[in-house]
Amino acid sequence: MTTKVISVSSAPFSGQKPGTSGLRKKVTVFQQERYLENFVQAIFDTLSGQQGKTLVVGGDGRYYNDVAIQTILRMAAAAGFGRALVGCDGILSTPAASAVIRKWQAFGGLILSASHNPGGPDGDFGIKYNLGNGGPANEAFTDAVYQRTQEISAYRTIEAADIDLGRLGEFQVGEMVVSIIDPVADYAELLESLFDFERIAALLARADFRMRFDAMHAVTGPYAKAILEGRLGAPAGTVVNGTPLPDFGGGHPDPNPVYAAELVAALADSRSGLSFGAASDGDGDRNMVVGRGFVVSPSDSLAVIAANHALVPGYAAGLAGVARSMPTSCAVDRVAKALGIPCYETPTGWKYFGSLLDAGKATICGEESAGTGSSHVREKDGLWAVLYWLNILAVRDTPADVIVREHWQRFGRNVYSRHDYEGIETAAADRLIDGLRARLPQLAGSLCNGLRIEAADDFAYIDPVDGSRSERQGIRIMLDDGSRVVFRLSGTGTEGATLRVYLERFVADPSRHEVPTQEALAPLVQLAETVAQIAGITGRKKPDVIS
Predict the structure, then answer these.
(1) β 322-325/364-367 pair status
(2) Active-site residue among 115, 275, 329, 547?
(3) How far is CA 247 from CA 115, 279, 311, 375, 442, in A?
(4) In this model, does residue 58 exceed pLDDT 70?
């Protein structure tokens, strides 16, 4: 008997435009009647050929995920999908979802997450569609979805009871089979194929090496416990805050020195006995690496990972190329030049790396916002980055801070920092950026606070694979000594606007490598204020977060 598809009348909501990684709003916004359904239906209406195919569904365990999954499954059955693979308890980290899509050759996937944003009833919620390659949908697709949200008149679903998301096995939702799967197994198998688990296990067994992984009460807890403590034999308790909670324990699951201050403090305290620390974010795609009293910047981490690829089994044969987002420091560019491989500069957003990875042009990619990954999936991958570092440490038998300092000795140091001004009134943020754009022609060749501006532009990107062009991807102020200041409005927040100011200065002289980061960048901070008039326009005299 054919299951009856029910058409429910609806009307458009304003503002359902996906950002750099899907649609993110407050939970209370998504809880509005028809809001989630409209967006999901717009995605399904934009697809073609999904009849009888497999859809992967899962998320980071934040508040409202379980309710949303039940709604999505009924709508997926109405849309003609033949099977859905769902992580047990609705859990699938973003990189694990990509791995599952790729391994099982699924048609695509819906990932429910607002990444590093806070959770809970008053927190944030998000949803994005990933393509059959495992990566985020491109701009052409998300633009089409947004257009559909603005003209939708009905959504389609079926009548079916909720299923038990906490029990492995197969269930029926209408004519669609739902398989509740182990969320860790496929992902862990993939990582074991890339890294020298035997050597990492030996490192973790040493009495003189202790590590701590802070899962921040987010999705990587089960993954880190299964891999670090399970397969690799790290002592119980190595993973802290390892149980995913709907509100992330009241914390902000963003692995940076501000929100993971406890981990940073523990590594700075010699009494802790810790040698190495790491953390990951809400949905498991970001990472932070910490040595003894030393936080490794994401840009340096990307460069070190590329420079040490020969030590890691999955990458020992060589790298096709590397790629970084434009605001990320140029440290990895210097590694690529030494290796004789191309380095691609893309806009912010992992979707821009997808075509490079699919075309075999790049092997390792990274963003300054704590995201690093490779061709093994089509998302950034927090736990992958941690295992990569452990593999390097195991082979080199050298502390993380020493590895970075030795890297600076060889390549020079790209002193780098990001200043975030969060929750700015949207109109003020737009006025600041529009004013900068208007002044770009006058800035090039000018002198500001004694610093010579060599060039100034609004970054545009032409994809070397498909030829697509992306405009207005960040304002760059480039100095004659190679320093840069970049201004960009983030697309990951849910309230107001976040202004990100990226500061970079290259220091070749080893005697200057230990100058504190903010001290070394102070002239660029002053330049940024003078050029953009941040305080005058936004009222903010200092950033909310410095990372």
Answers:
(1) parallel
(2) 115
(3) 12, 17, 39, 32, 47
(4) yes
| pLDDT confidence of residue 486 | 96
- CA dist 188 and 382 (Å) reads 13
**What is the spatial distance between Cα 82 and Cα 101, in angstroms, rounded to a whole number?**
15
Cα distance between residue 115 and residue 253, in whole Å: 8
Q: How confident is the model at residue 6 (pLDDT cuts 50, 70, 90)?
A: very high
- Token pair of 240 as six digits: 């802290």
Which residues 6+ apart lie within 8 Å of 270 measured at CB? 292
Distance (Å, whole) CA 136 – CA 494: 19
Residue 381 carries which DSSP code?
A: -
Note if 10 is an active site residue: no
Q: CA 401, 403, 406, 408: dihedral to nearest 10 degrees?
A: -70
- CB 368 within 8 Å of CB 299: yes
Dig out the tokens for 358 from the structure.
């699919």
Is pLDDT of 209 > 90? yes
Q: Which amino acid is at 456?
A: A
Give start and end residues of each alpha helix (H) in 49-115: 65-78, 94-103
At 491, the pLDDT band (50, 70, 90 cuts) reads low
Question: Is residue 177 a contact partner of residue 83, using CB atoms and an 8 Å limit?
Answer: yes
3-class state of residue 491 by DSSP: coil
pLDDT averaged over every residue in the chain: 95
Strands 54-59 and 83-91: parallel
Give residue 493's pLDDT. 53
At residue 369, does pLDDT exceed 90?
Answer: no
Model's pTM, two decimal places?
Answer: 0.94
What would the two tokens of residue 487 be? 């201004």
Q: What pLDDT does residue 89 have?
A: 97
Residues 70, 76, 79: CA angle, nearest 5 degrees: 150
The DSSP bridge pattern shows strands 294-296 and 54-59 to be: unpaired
